Amino acid sequence: MRRGAGPLRRARQDRMVGGVAAGLAERMGWDVTVVRCVFVMAALASGFGAAGYVLAWLLLPMTGESATIASKAMTDRRGIALAGALVSLLVVVLLIAPQLRAGYLDSIATPLLVTAAGIVLIWRNASEDEQGMIQHFAEPLIGLAEGRVKVRITLRLIIAFVLAALGIALFASAPAKGAPLQAVSGVLVVIAAIAVILGPWWLRLARDLVLERQARVRAEERADMAARVHDSVLQTLALIQRRAQDPQQVVALARAQERELRAWLFDGRAPGTLDSATTIAEGVRLIQQDVEAQHGIAVEVVTVGDCELDDDLSALLAAAREATVNAAKWSGAEVVSVFVEVEPEEVSVFVRDRGRGFDPGAVSSDRKGLAESVHARMCRRGGSARVRSAPGQGTEVSLTMPRSAANRSAANREPGRS
Amino acid sequence: MNMTGTATPRDPGLSGRTRPRVVIVDDHGLFRSGVRSELGDQVQVIGEAEDVQPAIELIAELLPDVVLLDVHLPGGGGQAVLAATKPVHPQVLFLALSASDAPEDVIAVIRAGARGYVTKTISGPELVAAVQRIAAGDAVFSPRLAGFVLDAFASGPAQDVGQPSFDPELDQLTPREREVLRLIARGYTYKEIARELFISVKTVETHVSSVLRKLQLSTRHQLTKWATERRLT
């Protein structure tokens, strides 16, 4: 067998774990199997064999590479912290060990610490293909943990039973005086047993809670988005269909919609939220202008009081806009009356027309207008919406939104605006 | 100025049913002819004026039942016409008309003695109804005026207590009056309000007249303060 030349490197090709044994065998011209056996025996005999192997793994670069894992690990602060945590945990176990009368643990303590810390650092810093190798070794263990439910539960029960027995034994055998550590460690071990049994269940519970909340948030976001798309894009498309014979207006509508959509998608400004308005009265005036311009219908606005806009009140305005547009489009009336009253506790908006009206019970549920855009939007923010209408009697939409405490106190700082 | 809510025109029953005699005061000729044609033959338009001084003379000469008065007139505004006519001819009733609704102007003409206020966007039939209502001795509140009044009387009376001029009867609205004003502001007609509140139309009219009286006679500090604030913003 030819003795290799050059510095000592970990072997890439015929490695089994880290390639240390193969690299050493190649460099020295020894038989790789013999070297491996020596390593295993050394590891079993004192533990230093394993520690040495891990150190070599850390400190020797692989063939074809110049950097060692250790050099990468130096900058891996989280890895070092993890290794430190693991070491401290082992130290605690070793401190308790004498109480367990397990003296043999002492002899392997130091190599155990080195090995554990080294493996953590290797795990976090090894190159991709080496991590694949480690994973290959870890798979059976993970498989055990993720295997069939029955196996898992049995395993957990066994571990928990052993731990509990150990803990109770420790606690019971503790002398009445003088050895508080033993009693405490007994209690700790029993707690660990409980954690082993119930831990996964706790974890699953916490995870389910998080997942459920995420799902709800997503659903709300979706509904909000659907409402906004309905307000802006779908409205405009409907308008374009109605004015198909007037190309100029169609172009103007499309352009305005494009601008709004861009602002929403790229600048994060939501369509339908009245960005330029800072108070309720301004917002309502904007609605009046827009609806009068787009639908050629008079909007009579009466406001009583005023206050700053916040998210809730913006939602109220968006709903009011929707109701006004609805009246402009479907009622056939010449005038839509909008009445806004800001009271200390709440803000109310009434949108009324004397048009043809409809039977609120007879509107099909897929017509989104009032149902989703107005009603659901108000409910999501803690407000309420009511529609009163009958065929031939016109329609009145009443919207009420409670004012948040912050909004109320903002108004108090500004005397004269009630 | 001794106008009160119970003041009656010369002959309420008669002028309510016969065609009220009307004078139109507005500086826009086009608007005057528009109103004249809208009023049709349900109302008898007996004269027109386009300035303050001619209007005062014309009203003194013709003594109409109702004067349709533009709030914004050159040479002093509708207020000047009211100030010159009211003390001499208290039986002539005024309905204020305005295109721009500057609240302080509206409140000013009401306090100067106008029995009602409507916007110029009002429809023909509604204007006829308003004139007839005024001629019958009732007050006419447009949604906007109702909003103004609610706003001006919004804050509780507590702030005015202790002021020498404070008169609880005059300086605050009753809950019922507030309800009526809210419904007017929401665009309800008197008839609809009556149905909504389960009261008679006559009672609605009484409430509105009482609000008008408060508006005209109240020395409420809040009212002036409110109007000043509104002018600033």
Number of helices of chain A: 14
What is the CATH class designation of the largest domain in chain B? Alpha Beta
Residue share in helices of chain B? 40-55%
Major beta sheet summary of chain B:
6 strands, parallel
Number of strands of chain A: 5
Q: Domains counted in the coordinates of chain B: how many?
A: 2
Morphology of chain B: globular
N→C terminal distance of chain A: 97 Å
Strand content of chain A: 5-15%
User: What percent of residues of chain A adopt helix (DSSP H or I)?
Assistant: 55-70%
Structural class of chain A: alpha+beta
Q: Structural class of the helix and strand makeup of chain B?
A: alpha/beta
The strand order across the widest sheet of chain B is 2-1-3-4-5-6
Give Rg of chain B in angstroms: 17 Å
What does this structure look like?
With 418 residues, chain A is of the alpha+beta class. Chain A has 14 helices and five strands. Among the domains of chain A are: 1-146, no CATH class; 272-412, Histidine kinase-like ATPase, C-terminal domain (Heat Shock Protein 90, 2-Layer Sandwich). Chain A has helices at residues 20-28, 32-46, 48-59, 69-73, 77-96, 104-125, 128-146, 149-173, 180-242, 247-267, 280-295, 311-330, 368-380, 405-412; strands at 298-304, 335-342, 346-353, 384-389, 395-402. Chain A has a five-stranded mixed beta sheet with strand order 1-2-3-5-4. The model of chain A is unreliable at 413-418 (pLDDT under 50). Chain B is of the alpha/beta class and 233 residues long. Chain B folds into two domains: 12-138, 3-Layer(aba) Sandwich (Rossmann fold); 148-232, Orthogonal Bundle (Arc Repressor Mutant, subunit A), CATH 1.10.10. Chain B is built from twelve helices and six strands. In chain B, strands 2-1-3-4-5-6 form a six-stranded parallel beta sheet, with helices on both faces. Chain B starts with 11 loop residues before the first helix and ends with a helix. The interface between A and B is medium-sized, with 17 and 18 residues.
